[in-house]
Amino acid sequence: MPEYKAPLRDMHFVMDEVLDFAASYEAYGLEDASPDLVNAILEEGGKFAGEVLAPLNRTGDEEGCHIDDGVVTTPKGFKEAYQQYVDNGWGSMTGSTEYGGQGLPFSLGLVISEMVASANYAFSMYPGLSHGCSAAISAHGTQEQKDQYLSKLTPGTWTGTMCLTEPHCGTDLGLIKTRAVPESDGSYKITGTKIFISCGEHDMAENIVHLVLAKLPDAPAGTKGISLFIVPKFLLDANGEKGERNTLKCGSIEHKMGIKASATCVMNFDDATGYLIGEANKGLNCMFTMMNHARLGTGMQGLCHGEASYQSALVYAKDRLQMRSLTGAKEPEKAADPIIVHPDVRRMLLTMKAFNEGNRALTYYTAQLLDQAHYSKDEGERANADALLAFLTPICKAFMTETGMEVTSLGMQVFGGHGYIREWGQEQQMRDCRIAPIYEGTNGIQALDLLGRKVLGSQGKLLSAFTKQVHKFCQANEGNSQFAGELAKLNQLNTQWGEITQSIAGRAMQNREEVGACSMDFLMFSGYVIHAFMWLKMAIVAQQQLAAGTSEEDFYKAKVATQSFYFKRLLPRAQAHVEALNSGADSLMDMTAEQF
Amino acid sequence: MADYKAPLRDIRFVLNEVFEADALWQSLPGLDGAIDAETADAMLEEAGKITSQTIAPLNRSGDEEGAQWNAGEVTTPSGFKAAFKTYAEGGWVGLGGNPEYGGLGMPKTLGVQVEEMVYGANNSFALYPALTAGCCLALDAHGSEELKQAYLPNMYAGIWSGTMCLTEPHCGTDLGIIRTKAVPEADGSYLVTGTKIFITGGEHDLTENIIHLVLAKLPDAPAGPKGISLFLVPKFLVNEDGSMGERNPVNCGSIEHKMGIKGSATCVMNFDSARGYLVGEVNKGLNAMFTMMNYERLSIGIQGIGCSEASYQSAVDYARERIQSRAPTGAVQPEKAADPIIVHPDVRRMLLTMKAMTEGSRAFSTYVGMQLDISKYADEPESKKKGEDLVALLTPVAKAFFTDVGLENCVHGQQVFGGHGYIREWGQEQLVRDVRIAQIYEGTNGIQALDLMGRKTVANGGAFFKVFAEEVRNFVTENSADAMAEFVQPLAKAIANLEELTAGVIERSKSNPNEVGAASVEYLHVFGYTAYAYMWAKMAKVALSKAEADEIGFYSAKLGTAKFFFQRLLPRIHSLSESVNAGSESLYELDAVQF
Ligand SMILES: Cc1cc2nc3c(=O)[nH]c(=O)nc-3n(C[C@H](O)[C@H](O)[C@H](O)COP(=O)(O)OP(=O)(O)OC[C@H]3O[C@@H](n4cnc5c(N)ncnc54)[C@H](O)[C@@H]3O)c2cc1C
Ligand SMILES: Cc1cc2nc3c(=O)[nH]c(=O)nc-3n(C[C@H](O)[C@H](O)[C@H](O)COP(=O)(O)OP(=O)(O)OC[C@H]3O[C@@H](n4cnc5c(N)ncnc54)[C@H](O)[C@@H]3O)c2cc1C
C-alpha cells in the first residue's frame, strides 16, 4: 500500500532557500506568516495529508461516488475527513479575514494544497472548486453577495462549483445554450444542462454554490453574450442560512478513467433562481480573472501525482531485487541487486525527480507572483507580477501536466508488472493524472493562449518580461565557473526563445494557421527552458550551501546532480520542439479531412 | 464510440504494394505451395469480418464486466466464449501453426496483419489465442513427438488453450531466481510445485483444457538461468487415447485487479505436485522459451498498433463531427455554429502523429514479419542468415517502440475527445489503460532496450546493425531521384546518425559497462524513428509511383503523412541522440540515499 509523506525538506528548500518567501511576505505586509508559523503549518499540513487523506485515496478510487435519485454519496470517510479539514481551518487559510479567512499568503495556501492534493487528488477537488468559486465572487460580487456567500464558502461550510461546460461545448463557450430570464425582483430564472461539473452534488457540505454561465434572452451571440450567475442548491433564508431547495438537480454522474472519488455531475437547472454576478454579458471575463489561480492549481496536479508516484517508486526500487548490476554484484549476499543499481531504472527515477522538483520550483515561483500581484503595495510591481502570471499560467497548466503524465507512467514502469495492478496504487496515479491535460482548458488551448493571445498578442512583451528575468539571472551569475556551461546553455536558449517567436510572428502574418501549428511545440520548448532556469537557481543555492559547509551534504549534492541530469538528458528535448515548429503549418494543413 | 473497422485498405497497401509479399512467399520453399495472393486476400477479408463484427463488440462490455473469479473458477465476460468458439472454428488460433499437427502454416507476414486486427478489436480477447499460439510455438520447436501429437492439434484448433508460466512473486525479469521445483517421477514425468503470478489466461471458461508451459528447477539444477527447465503441465491430464483424464493439482488462487485488459484473466497459479512433462532438454528451459520469443515479442508489440489504430479511427470520426470554435483562417462551415475540430492545426497535429506512427508501425511489423519468414523458410544460407540477424536486431525495437508509440498515440486519441475522452462510455480511455500493459509484459521495454543495445549490438560489435544500415543505405542510393529527395535525404542523415551513435556506445562501453544501460532506451527510440523513416520512404516511393491512378486521394494522403513524419517527428532523433551521447555519468552522480 502506498504511503504519502509531505516532502517538507524539499518544500522548505524552495520556499526558504531558493525563493525566500519570508522576505516577500515582509515586503507585502504578510509578516503574520512568520517563519515559525509557516514551519508549524507545514508540519501539521503534512500530518493531516499523510495520516487522514492519503489512506482514503485508494479506497476512494475503489468505491467511487454513487448517485441515487439526484443524491450523490462520496466514498467512505470523505465526509468526515472534509469536516476535519474545515475544523482545522485548512480551507480558510488564504481567505479574507473579513469572511472568516486567515488572510495567509496564497503561496502558503498552494504549498498546503500540494500536500492535500498529493495525498488524495479527488478529495482536494472539493475545496479546490470552492476556492475558484470564492475567488470569482470576491472579485466580481456585490457586497451583499460577498457577505452572503463568502462567509460560508471561506471556512468551507458550503462548497462551490464552476458550471461552464455543456454537452455540445467545452472549449467554445460562446455556443452555450443555458438561459437566464430576468425576474421582477432582480433575480433570474436559470434553465439548461451543464455537464462534467466537478463536485456539482455531494454529501460533504450542507449547501453548494454553483457559478453558472448562461445567456440573457437578448444577449449578443458568441462569447460576448455570456453572463455569470450564482445559483445556490439551497436558497438563503432571511438569516442567510440554508433555506428552500432550488430547482436544480444532479441528473447523473460520469463513469471515468480516474479521480473516481470526485463526483463529475450532469447538472439540470430548471427555472432555478440565480443572481447575476458582475456585469451582464461580461461573464467570461469574470471567469477569466480567477483563471490564473485555478489553472496553476490544475497544473500542480501534474506535480502532485508525480510526487506521490515518485515516493512509491523510490521505495520500491531500493527494495526490489532483480538482476545484477552491469558492473558486478552490489549486494552479493542477496539473490540479486536492488533495481536502483540499473542505469535504466535510474534514468526513470531521475527523470521523475528532475521534473517533479522543477515543477515544484516553478509552482512556488508562480505562487510568489500571485502574492505579489495581490498584496504588493507598489502598483508597478503588481502590474509586473500580473504580466508574468499571464505568461506563466498556461505554461504551468500544460507543461506540468504533460510532464506529470510522463512521470506517473515512469512510476508505473519502475514497478514492472506490479505497476499495472491496482493494489500498488501506481496505476491510479496515472489514471488520475490523465484528466489534468484535459480540463480547465485543454493543453492545446493553453498553448494557443500562450502563443496567440499572450506572446504574439502582446507583440512579444510578455515573453520579454520573462526572458529579461532569465537574462538578469545569467548575468548575475556570470563568474560562476562550476555552472558556466549550463549558464551559457540557458542564455542561448533564452535568446533562441525570442528568435523563434520572431520567426513564428513573421509567418503568422501570412498565415494564421501558423500559430496553432506551432503552439504546442512552443509551449513545450518554453517549459523546458523554464525548468532549466529553475534547476540552475536551485543548483546555485546548493552550491553555495556546499561551499559554506553543511551537515546536509547529501541533500545539496543531490540537487546539483539532478540539475546535471536535467541539462544533459532532458533539456536536449527542447531542440526537437524547435525543429518541429520551424517546419511550419503546411505538413499539418495539406490533407483534406477525408484523407485522414 | 466508433465501431472498429479492420483497416484492410491500409493493410493491403503495405502487404501487396509496399512489400510485394506474394513475390516473397512464392520465392520461399515451403511457403510457395501454402499461400498465394488470392488466398491471403480472402483471409484478410475474413479476419476483418470476424474482428469487426464478432470480437470488437465485446470490447467495452468486457472491460466493464471483467473476468470473474469464484473458488478457483474463472468466468470470462459475456460473449467471450461464443466468440472464441467462432474464432477457433475459423482456424485462426492455428494460423501460423505447423501443418503436420493441424496448423494452417501461414506466413508471419500475414499473421501480423491478423494479430493487429484482433488487438485492434479487443485486447483482452486477443490475449487468449495469442498465448495459445505462443505456447504452441515452444512446444512445436522443443517438444517430443509424443507431446506434439498429444497436444498441438487440439491447441491449434482452439479446443484447448495455452499459457506461459514464467513469473513468480519475487521475479519477473530475473528468471534465474525462480523457486518452482520439478521432481522427477519413475515414469519419466515430473511433479511440479510452486506459485506463478500474472499468468495470462491461466484459468478461464473458454476451452475444455488449459495447457501450461511452466519454468521450474530440478532438485539438482545449477543456480541461475542455466538451471531452468521447461515443463508442460495440463489442467486436465490427457489419457493415452487422447481423451481427458484426471484433474491435475494446478489451481488458480486469485486473479488480479488491473488498470486495463480486464477481460483477460491474470492469474495466480498454484502448482501443488502437479504432473508435468519435460519440454526440450533439462536445464535448457530458458533457451527453449527464447527461441520462440521473437514471435511472441513481435506479437505483443502489435498490441500497440492495434490499440493505436482503434483509437485513431474513433478520434478521426470524432474530429470530423465535433464542432467547436472557428478555423483560424475563417469559418469553414459558416452554416454551422462552429467548425469541426479537424480544421484546427493542433487537432491535426495529434491526428497526424497518430496516423504517421501507426502506419509506420504497421509497415515495420510487416517488414519484421518478412524477416521471420525469410529466416524460417529461406533455403539459401546467406539470405537466411541475413533474415536471422535482422530478426534478432529488430524484434526488441518492434516490441518496445510499437508499444511506447502506442501509448503516445492512444493518449492523443483521448485528447482529441477533450473531456469526453476521459469518460468510459467513449472507449478512448480504455485504450490508454489497455495499451499501457504492453510496455510492461513480455520483457519490459527497458529490458528490450538492453537486449538491443547489449546483446544484439555491443556484444557483436555492431554486426547485426551493419546488415540493417547497409540495406537502408542501398535504398537511399537506389532512390536518389528528385521526387524522393525530401524523403531519402533526411533518411540518409538519420542512418548516418544512428551509425555514429552505435559506434559511440560500442566504444564507450569498453571502459564502462553501465554505458549500455544508460544509452539503451533513447538509443532504441532513435532506432525506431530511423527505421520508420525507412518505412515511410518506402511507402512514399510507392505512393509517388501511383500518383496518377490516385482517384480518392489515397496515395496523396500517404505522401502527406510521409511529409509530416519527416518534418515533424523524425527530428526527435536529434534530441534523443544528444541524450544518448550524454552517457552514463549523470545517472550515477547520486548515491541511492540521495534520490
Ligand atoms: C472529470 C472532468 C471534470 C470537469 N470539471 C468541470 C467543471 O467542474 N466545470 C466545467 O465547467 N467543466 C468541467 N469539465 C469540462 C472540461 O473543462 C472540458 O471537457 C474541457 O474544457 C474541454 O472541452 P470539451 O470536452 O468540450 O472538448 P472540445 O472543446 O470539444 O475539444 C475537443 C478537442 O478539440 C480541441 N480544440 C477545440 N477547439 C480548438 C481550437 N480552437 N484550436 C485547437 N484545438 C481545439 C481541444 O483541445 C480538444 O483536444 C470537466 C471535465 C471532466 C472530464
Ligand atoms: C497483466 C499482466 C499479464 C502478464 N502475463 C504474464 C504471463 O502470461 N506469463 C508470465 O510468465 N508473466 C506474465 N506477466 C509478468 C510480466 O511478464 C512481468 O511483470 C515482467 O516481465 C516484469 O517483471 P516484474 O514485474 O517482476 O518486474 P521487475 O523485473 O521487478 O522489474 C521492475 C523494474 O526494474 C527494471 N529492471 C529489472 N531488471 C533490470 C536490469 N537488469 N536492467 C535495467 N532495468 C531492470 C524493469 O525494467 C522494471 O522497470 C504479466 C504481467 C502483467 C501485469
TrEMBL record, chain A:
InterPro entries: Acyl-CoA_dh-like_C_dom, Acyl-CoA_Oxase/DH_mid-dom, Acyl-CoA_Oxase/DH_mid-dom_sf, AcylCo_DH-like_C, AcylCo_DH/oxidase_C, AcylCoA_DH/ox_N, AcylCoA_DH/ox_N_sf, AcylCoA_DH/oxidase_NM_dom_sf. Gene3D superfamilies: Acyl-CoA dehydrogenase/oxidase, N-terminal domain, Butyryl-CoA Dehydrogenase, subunit A, domain 2, Butyryl-CoA Dehydrogenase, subunit A, domain 3. Residues 466-591 form the Acetyl-CoA dehydrogenase-like C-terminal domain. Pfam families: Acyl-CoA_dh_1 (PF00441), Acyl-CoA_dh_C (PF12806), Acyl-CoA_dh_M (PF02770), Acyl-CoA_dh_N (PF02771). Its cofactor is FAD. This is Acyl-CoA dehydrogenase. Belongs to the acyl-CoA dehydrogenase family. Residues 281-449 form the Acyl-CoA dehydrogenase/oxidase C-terminal domain. Residues 162-271 form the Acyl-CoA oxidase/dehydrogenase middle domain. It comes from Pseudomonas neustonica. Keywords: FAD, Flavoprotein, Oxidoreductase. Residues 42-156 form the Acyl-CoA dehydrogenase/oxidase N-terminal domain.
From TrEMBL, chain B:
Residues 283-452 form the Acyl-CoA dehydrogenase/oxidase C-terminal domain. InterPro entries: Acyl-CoA_dh-like_C_dom (IPR025878), Acyl-CoA_Oxase/DH_mid-dom (IPR006091), Acyl-CoA_Oxase/DH_mid-dom_sf (IPR046373), AcylCo_DH-like_C (IPR036250), AcylCo_DH/oxidase_C (IPR009075), AcylCoA_DH/ox_N (IPR013786), AcylCoA_DH/ox_N_sf (IPR037069), AcylCoA_DH/oxidase_NM_dom_sf (IPR009100). Residues 468-591 form the Acetyl-CoA dehydrogenase-like C-terminal domain. It comes from the Bacteria. Pfam families: Acyl-CoA_dh_1, Acyl-CoA_dh_C, Acyl-CoA_dh_M, Acyl-CoA_dh_N. Keywords: FAD, Flavoprotein, Oxidoreductase. Its cofactor is FAD. Residues 164-273 form the Acyl-CoA oxidase/dehydrogenase middle domain. Residues 40-158 form the Acyl-CoA dehydrogenase/oxidase N-terminal domain. PANTHER family: ACYL-COA DEHYDROGENASE, BROAD-SPECIFICITY LINEAR ACYL-COA DEHYDROGENASE FADE5. Belongs to the acyl-CoA dehydrogenase family. This is Acyl-CoA dehydrogenase. It comes from Pseudomonas neustonica.
